[in-house]
Amino acid sequence: MEDGRIVTVRGERELAARAGGVFAHAREEFLCGAEDLMTWSGVNAAFREGNRPTVRPGGGLAMRKVYSRRALGDPESERRLAAIAASGAQVRISDAPLAREAVVIDRRVAILAGPESRGPRTYTVVRVPEVVDGVRALLYATWEAAADLPLALGSAGTPALTEDARQVLAALGSGLTDEAAARHLGMSLRTYRRRVADLMASLGATSRFQAGVLASTAASAPSASSAHTVLPTSRPATPHA
């Protein structure tokens, strides 16, 4: 069907050409649902190829992304999810399969991904207010019931952090090498690695991937001065550690 308000396109390039401006001009809310990280990756690549602006959180734009547990299939996927969260997006994981993979922008436009196929995937761009509202309600209900990414990765959440702990955790999530992070914090490499290990144990993180995700939420976690629970830092470092 194609009457200007409901348009079906084939392939990511055609979607980028027909609806790229909608993505680029999101102002209030960008709500995205996907079974895994592959669903919209081709769309993003098509936008980059066409030099179209990408959506960035901030400036009043709430970016919410919910994925099924298929997105947690391997360490590389966890790294990518951590990067998405670190960019400012709110990322959640749903235990239940998504009813529909879709994007809703500013409650004005809904983009529905068609079933996976060997050929180009179809996408339906909808501008009918009643339909957009229905798609958003369904997707937002899934978002509300889903778990925040750190919890989905097995963490009990981010406890209150001392300032020293925040700095170590931020360095861990910054992508710096251990050597560069230690220099930045003014401590020895051995001390930095010991503090990272202590932080991971306190946070319940079983890998640096999980700790990196927690680093993206550290800025909003309560500080030790305003909370009773304080994340313990490492024992005092000895000279020349």
UniProtKB/TrEMBL annotation:
SUPFAM superfamilies: C-terminal effector domain of the bipartite response regulators. It comes from the Bacteria. Residues 158-215 form the HTH luxR-type domain. One of its GO terms (molecular function) is DNA binding. GO terms for biological process: regulation of DNA-templated transcription. This is HTH luxR-type domain-containing protein.
